[in-house]
C-alpha cells in the first residue's frame, strides 16, 4: 500500500448554491490537507483530489453525505506522493467544457460496466469511439478505436460527420473517467445514432477493475503524474518521441510557457532540449526551468486559494454580530 491516494470522480446533480457550496467545499479540503482540482457548476461536481488514505476517505464520506452526490462513484489510485501542488475549487458553467446542447440527466448513452465492456471490445459489430483530446489518445487508446483530431470536447460537432456512416452500429464511447462520455453519448443520440453506450468510470476504472486489456499505451491524466499505466494484461507502447522518433510514452508539457504543447518526449531528449519541443522553444525567453518531469503548475488566474476560508470567516463574523445585536 502506498502512502497517498488520487481519487477521480464526477456527479451530474443540480447545485443551486454554487458559490456557497464552493466555499464550504474548499474549507473542508483545507482542513483535511487535500490538494487537487474541483469544479462546481449548476449541473454538478467534478474533481481529482489527492491526499493521505485517511483524508481521502473523509473526503469521499463528505461527498456521499450530501444527498445530491450520494451516488458518486470514485476511482481510487495509490501513489507515492500527493499528485498535486495546489488546491483549486472553482465555480464554472459546466463541470466539463463542452457547449453541447444536451443534459445527461435527461438523456445519455447506456452505461457499460468495465466487465461488460471487456466482453464487448472484441465484438466485430462494436465501434469504439475515443472522446478525448488529440494529445491524450496520441499516447494511449483502445486497440482499433476511432479517434478525432480535436483539442477539446467543444469540437465534437465538427467531427461527428466522420462517423456518420456508423449510425446503425453499436457505438461505445470512452474517455479518462467517464465524464465526457455523459455528454458526448447524449450528443450522438441527438445526431441520430441508434445504439450508443459509454464505458462507465472510463479508462481508469477499466484498468483498476479489469486489468486494462487492449488499452495500448498509457492514459493521460490531469495531475503531476501526466500519464499512468492502465494495461496490466497486454501492454504496449504506441507513441514516439516528438524529437527523435524512438518509442516513448513519456509525456511532457513544452517548457516554453507560450507553447505548452503536450507531446511524448524520451528522457534523453527531454534533458537535451531542456524540456522544450523545438529549438525555437528551447531558445524562447519564456522557457520554464525543466526538472525532468515536464509538469508545470498552472497559473492561478486571479484565483485565491484561501477564498473559501476567508468567506467562511466573514460569515462567522456576521453571525456573531447578528447574535450580539439580538442580545441587546
TrEMBL record:
SMART domains: RHOD. Its EC number is 1.14.-.-. It comes from the Bacteria. GO terms for molecular function: oxidoreductase activity, acting on paired donors, with incorporation or reduction of molecular oxygen. Pfam families: Rhodanese, Rhodanese_C, UPF0176_N. InterPro entries: Rhodanese-like_dom, Rhodanese-like_dom_sf, Rhodanese_C, TrhO, TRHO_N. Keywords: Oxidoreductase, tRNA processing. GO terms for biological process: tRNA modification. It catalyses: uridine(34) in tRNA + AH2 + O2 = 5-hydroxyuridine(34) in tRNA + A + H2O. Catalyzes oxygen-dependent 5-hydroxyuridine (ho5U) modification at position 34 in tRNAs. Belongs to the TrhO family. NCBIfam families: PRK00142.1-3. This is tRNA uridine(34) hydroxylase. It comes from Dyadobacter helix.
Amino acid at each position: 500500500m502506498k502512502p497517498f491516494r488520487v481519487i477521480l470522480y464526477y456527479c451530474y446533480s443540480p447545485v443551486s448554491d454554487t458559490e456557497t457550496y464552493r466555499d464550504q467545499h474548499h474549507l473542508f479540503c483545507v482542513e483535511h490537507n487535500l490538494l487537487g482540482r474541483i469544479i462546481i457548476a449548476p449541473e454538478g461536481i467534478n474533481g481529482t483530489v489527492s491526499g493521505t488514505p485517511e483524508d481521502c476517505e473523509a473526503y469521499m464520506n463528505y461527498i456521499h453525505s450530501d444527498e445530491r452526490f450520494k451516488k458518486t462513484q470514485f476511482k481510487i489510485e495509490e501513489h507515492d506522493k500527493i499528485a498535486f501542488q495546489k488546491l483549486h475549487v472553482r465555480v464554472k458553467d459546466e463541470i466539463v467544457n463542452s457547449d453541447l446542447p444536451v443534459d445527461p440527466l435527461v438523456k445519455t448513452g447506456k452505461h457499460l460496466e468495465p466487465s461488460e465492456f471487456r466482453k464487448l471490445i472484441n465484438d466485430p459489430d462494436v465501434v469504439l469511439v475515443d472522446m478525448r483530446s488529440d494529445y491524450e489518445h496520441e499516447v494511449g487508446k483502445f486497440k482499433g478505436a476511432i479517434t478525432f483530431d480535436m483539442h477539446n470536447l467543444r469540437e465534437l460537432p465538427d467531427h461527428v460527420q466522420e462517423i456518420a456512416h456508423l449510425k446503425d452500429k453499436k457505438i461505445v464511447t470512452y474517455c479518462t473517467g467517464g465524464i465526457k462520455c455523459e455528454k458526448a453519448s447524449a450528443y450522438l443520440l441527438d445526431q441520430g445514432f441508434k445504439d450508443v453506450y459509454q464505458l462507465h468510470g472510463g479508462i481508469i476504472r477499466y484498468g483498476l477493475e479489469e486489468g486494462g486489456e487492449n488499452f495500448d499505451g498509457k492514459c493521460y491524466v490531469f495531475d503531476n503524474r501526466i500519464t499512468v499505466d492502465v494495461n496490466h494484461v497486454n501492454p504496449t507502447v504506441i507513441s514516439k518521441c516528438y524529437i527523435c522518433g524512438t518509442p516513448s510514452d513519456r509525456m511532457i508539457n513544452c517548457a516554453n510557457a507560450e507553447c505548452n504543447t503536450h507531446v511524448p518526449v524520451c528522457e534523453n531528449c527531454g534533458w537535451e532540449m531542456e524540456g522544450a519541443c523545438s529549438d525555437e522553444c528551447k531558445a524562447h525567453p519564456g522557457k520554464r526551468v525543466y526538472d525532468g518531469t515536464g509538469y508545470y503548475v498552472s497559473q492561478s488566474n486571479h484565483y485565491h486559494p484561501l477564498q473559501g476560508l476567508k468567506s467562511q470567516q466573514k460569515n462567522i463574523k456576521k453571525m456573531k454580530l447578528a447574535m450580539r445585536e439580538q442580545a441587546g
